[in-house]
Amino acid sequence: MxxxxxxxxxxxxxxxxxxxxxxxxxxxxxTISYVLNEIADITVDAPLTNEILLKFKSTGGFNDEIDITxxxxxCFIAAKxxxxxxxxxxxxxxxxxxxxxxxxxxxxxxxxxxxxxDIKSRLNYPSADKNDLVHATFDQLxxxxxxxxxxxxxxxxxxxxxxxxxxxxxxxxxxxxxxKKKFADKIAIVTGRGFSAISSSLKELLxxxxxxxxxxxxxxxxxxxxxxxxxLIRAMKGLNSKNCLYVGDSMEDMILAQKASExxxxxxxCGIYGSGKLLxxxxxxxxxxxxxxxxxxxxxxxxxxxxx
Length: 308
Fold this sequence. Notes:
The protein is an alpha/beta fold. Helix content is 47%, strand content 10%.
């Protein structure tokens, strides 16, 4: 593979442009704790370990953090009904999980004969208006009262500042300028985030990307979610790209690039492993899956692409 053949570079956001360990990952656990306490009188401080979070993201079916949150709630309630250790149950569930996400989790729990129909009915997730308990709680905790009100025109039931404020921005102007020497204006984003969430954290930096050819999946219909390759294909078409480097940090990102290539849109995957926890585990996951590039940080891209 020749790096000079790439004519565009497209980025995932979370774990790539932004370290979300203290924002999204924290919101997952805080939401699970709140929902479990509300509907099942279960008290737990940090439901999902770093290992479990990485396992969810390694299946290829959990690009949406709120899907992880919902699955965590189901598993904890199922564990209580079965009188099992919830962590053990979740690890059992994830051992052979595929990229169908929450459908797989629900099917697995049904298969082991635990009746969670009452909880599924009460949670009504995912709801079309995103007003179910899991969605609404997650969004309120993540965005904080002011931003939540601005995006959803609703009042938050929480007064604390949003965990989005803990986003740690990795990308900077110097890196984008270095990449522009090769890719000019063919630099875009395909992310599970919505536009409001990414612009709140990247601010004016976002304008250095081709926003009109980027895809913000939270604002799109759910069937477009990764690893559906149509979002990447749309970005490539918009950029008039024949050979793209897609930079992500999860299995669904890698599957996304592979599926786009299978449909005739040449996309090479670059796996980033350096943000968050359990770096070696994530690095080895990409190496084992034969990712074309495996880098600790996007700051290594100029060297990997022979730009310096």
